[in-house]
């Protein structure tokens, strides 16, 4: 199965070694696991377009009833997150696959309609599948628009996989994977680099700044010095 390398590996680190006899530069590749934040709940705008969204909201509100206290609000949001996760899993999981499946089914029905244009049953199926495909396509664009928060997606530019791969590559390029410690030794690895930087700043905060030495009057008198009368005239 064909796959792009940027979809397979989150982070790639390569070291260029000394040229070998065949006049080639050998590369030593590493595929370390990049540190990622813990997954958190994120609201998706596409959920509000589904017919089951508002019944879920209203049912959860009716369960508690009356004004919310702070504890009741926390319990309400916890139950609501669980219901919205189920909604997303049942209807919005793997939108690309759903969109491709609906498109394939729509092409099949439209081909059958060309052979039998007067078939009312095929017309009804074509309408339902076309609406399903439009909904899947709209949900995919809504999700991408919410994730990217870019103006170009509303102006008609192509949201290709190459763009998202370059954006991901640009973000990962800001990660520091290799650094030298205070002894000049090269350290590799995200955790090891973090420890080196932490020790550096701890040592920096513990050090006492040297006290300033007083100025030598002999050095000052070697240059031009204003007299008291000149200072009064300038004032």
Protein topology:
Blueprint: H1 5-8, E1 13-16, E2 27-30, H2 53-64, H3 70-91, H4 95-115, H5 120-148, H6 161-172, E3 178-180, E4 186-188, H7 190-206, H8 217-221, H9 228-234
Antiparallel strand pairs: 1-2, 3-4
Helix pairs in contact: 2-3, 4-5
Low-confidence stretches: none
Radius of gyration: 33 Å
β-strand percent reads: 5-15%
User: What is the count of β-strands?
Assistant: 4
Query: Largest sheet, order of strands side by side?
Result: 1-2
Query: Structural class of the helix and strand makeup?
Result: mainly alpha
The helix content, as a percent range, equals: 40-55%
Sheet having the most strands: 2 strands, antiparallel
Shape, principal axes of CA atoms:
elongated
- SSE order in H/E notation? HEEHHHHHEEHHH
Mean pLDDT: 77
Describe it for me?
It is a single chain. With 235 residues, this protein is mainly alpha-helical. It contains nine helices and four strands. The protein has helices at 5-8, 53-64, 70-91, 95-115, 120-148, 161-172, 190-206, 217-221, 228-234, and strands at residues 13-16, 27-30, 178-180, 186-188. A two-stranded antiparallel sheet has the order 1-2. Strands 3-4 form a two-stranded antiparallel ribbon. Strand 3 (178-180) and strand 4 (186-188) form a beta hairpin. The longest helix has 29 residues, at 120-148. The mean pLDDT is 77.
TL;DR of this structure?
It contains nine helices and four strands; from the N terminus they run H-E-E-H-H-H-H-H-E-E-H-H-H.
Keyphrases for this structure?
6% strand, single chain, two-stranded antiparallel ribbon, 235 residues, mainly alpha, 9 helices
